Amino acid sequence: MTRSARRTRRMLQVAGVSAAALLILSACSSSGSGSDKGSSASSSPKLSGEVTVFAAASLEEGFTTLGKEFEKDHPGTKVTFNFGGSDTLAASITSGAPADVFAAASTKTMGTVTDKKDTAGPPATFVRNQLQIATLPGNRERISSLKDLTKSDLKVVLCDKTVPCGAAAQKALDAGGLKLTPVSYEQDVKSAVTKVELKEADAAVVYKTDVRAAGDKVEGVDFPESDKAVNDYPIALLRNSPNPGTAKAFIALVRSAEGQKVLSGAGFLKP
């Protein structure tokens, strides 16, 4: 074998050893990367325990659906809801009622809680809601405007003025220069809708979401003054949350694309 041939052979052997070394290093690096990923995943805290959510009555349908989805996605968790008038819920929170999350039907009501420094951080608006007139199916009274509700022969129900839906209704009436004396003021929007469903009232000024939730039990009538009384809905983690980690995850679901899809389906407007 010539000197030139021996030199070529020796160069090929060296190249082969180098290539093998590179393959081994690559495999080790890949193995280490996979190990780190697994270690990172295993170190992520698993969500567990109960989360108590105080939420405006108008959120009942949408939040109930999201609560079930959350429990399904995170076995070992439980979401418990307390639905009611936002002002009543806010008063309970500031009085020390144990809860993890508060979702209010107005920024003013949420302000009652933030003013007492009972939130763990600034609230975030996650949806908006607009008013509609709920009438009996078929709209026998032929109600077509907010002004029609001022007729003396009609039995109309409003939410109490301290409740967000009642404050919004009053704002709409003021925008139209109208005065209305209802047969009753209800403590939450669900109670107002129920009055119509039971035929104890001819109409009620409520949210579009509640008209939709009632299905064929009531009929909805739009009115232009509602554009002046759209409510922002804020949500916040509470300062004394017993389960903040899981509570934050639920809030994240509410604000996610998936959560927004569910709430939009319930009739809420995007924030």
3D architecture notes:
The chain has nine helices and ten strands. The protein has helices spanning 3-43, 60-73, 86-94, 107-115, 164-175, 189-197, 208-213, 244-255, 257-265, and strands at residues 49-56, 77-84, 101-103, 124-129, 131-135, 156-159, 184-186, 203-207, 219-221, 231-237. Strands 2-1-3-10-4 form a five-stranded mixed β-sheet. Strands 7-6-8-5-9 form a five-stranded mixed β-sheet. Keywords: Metal-binding, Signal. This is Molybdate ABC transporter substrate-binding protein. Belongs to the bacterial solute-binding protein ModA family. InterPro entries: ModA, ModA/WtpA.
Distance between the termini: 83 Å
Q: How helical, in percent, are the residues?
A: 40-55%
> How many beta-strand elements?
10
Largest sheet: 5 strands, mixed
List the helices and strands and how they pair.
Blueprint: H1 3-43, E1 49-56, H2 60-73, E2 77-84, H3 86-94, E3 101-103, H4 107-115, E4 124-129, E5 131-135, E6 156-159, H5 164-175, E7 184-186, H6 189-197, E8 203-207, H7 208-213, E9 219-221, E10 231-237, H8 244-255, H9 257-265
Parallel strand pairs: 1-2, 1-3, 6-7, 6-8
Antiparallel strand pairs: 3-10, 4-10, 5-8, 5-9
List keywords for this structure.
271 residues, five-stranded mixed sheet, 10 strands, disordered N terminus
